[in-house]
Amino acid sequence: MMEAIRLETLTGVIDKKMNRQLKQYIDICARCAICKDACHQYVGTGDFKYLPARRAELIRQIYKKYFDGAGRFMPTLYEARDPDENLLDELYDSTYACTGCRRCMYYCPFSIDTAWILPVAKAILIAAGRGNEMLGQLADAAIFKGENAAMFEGVMLSGFEDITEEVRAITGIPEHKVHVNKEGADILYVALAGAHSIRPAAVIFEETGENWTISMFEAANYGFFYGDTEKARLITKRYIDEANRLGVKEIVVPECGHAYRVAEFFYEAWSKEPMPFKVSHILEKVDEYIKAGRITVDKGKIDGKVTYHDPCQLGRNGGKFEQPRDIVKAVTDSFVDLTPNRAEQWCCGGGGGIVAMEEFKDMRLKSGIKKVEQLRASGASVLACPCENCRLQIEELNEVHGLGLEIWQVIDLVVAAMPLPGNDAAASEDSAEA
Amino acid sequence: MYIALAVFIVGMGWRVYQWATTPKSPVRLGMFPKPATKGGRFWKMLKDTFVAPHSAKIEPKMYFFSMLFHVAALAAFVGHLRILDEYPILPDLLGEHGMDTFAAWAGSIAGTLMLVGIIFWIDRRTFGPYKNLSVPEDYLLLFLLFGVIVMGDHLRFVYGSFIHADTYQAWFQSLLAFKPAFPDKLLTGNVGWSLGTHVLFTDLFLIYFPFSKLVHAIGSLAANYVRSE
User: Are B127 and B165 within 8 A, CB to CB?
Assistant: First the structure.
């Protein structure tokens, strides 16, 4: 028998997290298992615990035992049970492994959002002291940075100065820079950690003459992956406060799937207050710039057949299907789509923070098999992919399966296709070497 | 039967009340593509619920048999409405005998298709590679449905040639009037036993319905609407 206090704590999580949609999902799932063929992890491993309905079933078993009259009356009928160690073991694997791609929801006849049931599972695991340590530590580090911003300022500024030099080398314009702490800027660009996420965006913003500034914080949110809403809120709040302080009109998030979804779809619900600015994805802006002629891109600078991977959080869950494609099509005549694509796109297997959890590595690579098949079938030699986690996973798949792909951020493709002195110099060097 | 109907109606009402009084998710759970207008979302909800095109794409075999079952069940339900009252137009067109012949064909087809559907589900759930997903609730529902269908088919195929809707209508009307009476035809041979078993399975099915996953009959509409929000 479980200790009463512990049991109360764990079941209390369900009570606290309960809402209409969750209740309906738990009540109506028919266990028809149509979702099995939608999940890249179940398809890639055949392991029962990765079947989406099974992941949700574990929560339903606890719910039935403690929150449902019929379940309390006839627990055997529903296999209702306590959140004991056996259940928590399976729950840990099935929950933290899930990339939250919601492909199962897309194909479910009732549109059950398994990824909306799993935050409850994560909250139970955290309450049981079994939250994923790596994700928890990364989340805490981000919160610490938010609380002690001054401590990190010197390093950040020095990094931005280095990137400024790189931007100037590419554009050839000495006035171009990475703007920092610019009050009255129109745009706050919240990048990822690393120059690769800032440099091409800075080139593009500067070339358009956009009134922008860089955030001192990164857009990645490990609190979201960890499953702690409060941590996730605090991590996001860092740049929301910054945007308020600087008085910007728009927050632009980088080539990252979950960062866009967090800012656009989750933060207002977490903070319970409306945001006074618009949220855009960097590729929405770049698409606008190209279509408005604010930047010029030339076709023919990118060699080979180019394909595009829809990150789940940006495509199916974020609605950005066409803008990235339009950008890629603007820089090449050799675009080929993956099959299936857009809302039916296979998850690459790298989302949900799974690339940061070493324990899931073998399964993660197996779960990428559908993506590998898609990429092979496309015959492309270049992949444009606007999500850091997707890129990390596909780079690994590329190596393991010898796909021979060049994997690019979309904004890198754009910068490479712009008529800029830095590009021309690089091209001259290439031809001299040849 | 009275108890079964009462439990079904109150139970379903209670389930819907529970859903309605639980606060809505603070996060928008919609996925893309989704219609921009409320009307568009409503139509998409109906399409996703009653046509389920995405499910058809990913597992055509399961989709085919599930649709077969649900459409046949709907047809069977509509056919059963004759025991409430005779249809207004069809009998005029077909004549009394023609109507009974039509009902015999329609009922036989619907009953057979339902049987095919339920056998497919039993097979899939019992021998499929993911059978571990099944819990006793699933088998109980399949058992009850199987009983309803087999005994319904028994009534249709064995006694259908000489017991027609008028007999069942007289019996059902007496139930509705709270004065149960059994026409002579229902008391001949084993007819009463067959009808009684069919009704018993149906009663048990209705009683269990609100406490089972079958609440997807209503809940799927709400969940499919959220998909487009």
Answer: no
Amino acid at B109: I
CA angle B132/A56/A11 to nearest 5° reads 115
- Mean of the pLDDT values across residues B180-201? 90
Crossing angle of the two packed helices B90-127 and B60-80, in degrees rounded to 10: 140
- The closest CB to that of B215, out of A27, A34, A77, belongs to A27
Instruction: Tell me how crowded residue A422 is: count the other CB atoms within 10 A of its CB.
Output: 18
What's the confidence (pLDDT) of residue B147?
98
Paired sense of beta strands A382-384 and A278-281, if any: unpaired
Nearest to B25 among A21, A38, A315 (CB): A21
Per-residue pLDDT, A430: 60
With CA atoms as reference, the chain B residue closest to A49 would be B133
* pLDDT confidence of residue A5: 86
> Strand A187-189 vs strand A382-384: parallel, antiparallel, or unpaired?
unpaired
Compute the distance between CA of residue B140 and CA of residue B149 in angstroms, rounded to an integer.
14
Whether ipTM > 0.90 holds is yes
| Partners of residue B56 on adjacent β-strands | none
Size of interface A-B (CB pairs under 8 A): 147
DSSP letters, A303-315, are: -S-EEE---TTTT
Q: How far is B128 from chain A (nearest CA, A)?
A: 10
Q: Which residues contact A376 (CB under 8 A, 6 or more apart)?
A: A401, A403
A408 bridge partner residues = A384
* Sheet arrangement for strand A306-308: A306-308, A382-384, A406-408
* Residue A129 φ/ψ region, left for φ over 0, alpha for ψ in the -120 to 50 degree band, beta for the rest: left
Contact B21, B220 (CB under 8 A): no
Encode pLDDT of A368-417 as tens digits.
999 999 999 999 999 999 999 999 999 999 999 999 999 999 999 999 99
Inter-chain touch B137–A51, beta carbons under 8 Å: no
Question: What distances in angstroms separate CA A405 from CA A256, A330, B14, B154, one per listed residue?
Answer: 20, 20, 57, 63
Q: Which of B159, B141, B142 is nearest to B196 (CA)?
A: B159
Question: What is the pLDDT, as a whole number, of residue A366?
Answer: 98
- pTM of the predicted model as reported, rounded to 2 decimal places: 0.95
The rounded distance, in Å, linking the Cα atoms of A33 and A56 is 12
pLDDT tens, residue by residue, A326-366: 999 999 999 999 999 999 999 999 999 999 999 999 999 99
Which residues of chain B make contact with A69, given a CB cutoff of 8 A? 211
Strands (E), A11-79: none
* A92, containing H or E segment: helix A85-97
Shortest distance between the Cα of B190 and any Cα of chain A, in A, equals 33
Q: Which of A19, A77, A116 sits opposite B140 (nearest CB)?
A: A77
| CA-based radius of gyration for chain B | 20
Shortest distance, CA A33 to any CA of chain B (angstroms): 8
**Which residue in A25, A269, A316 is closest to B26 by CB distance?**
A269
3-state secondary structure of A406: strand
Is residue B140 exposed (0-12), middle (13-18) or buried (19+ Cβ within 10 Å)?
A: middle
Q: Give the number of other CB atoms < 10 A from CB of residue A127.
A: 17
Asked whether the beta carbons of A368 and A324 are under 8 A apart, the reply is no
Q: What is the mean pLDDT of residues B137-162?
A: 95
Q: Report CA-CA distances (Å) from A176 to A179, A207, A405, A416, B154.
A: 9, 8, 32, 17, 84
φ, ψ dihedrals at A214, nearest 5°: -95, 145
Express each pLDDT in A179-203 by its tens digit.
999 999 999 999 999 999 999 999 9
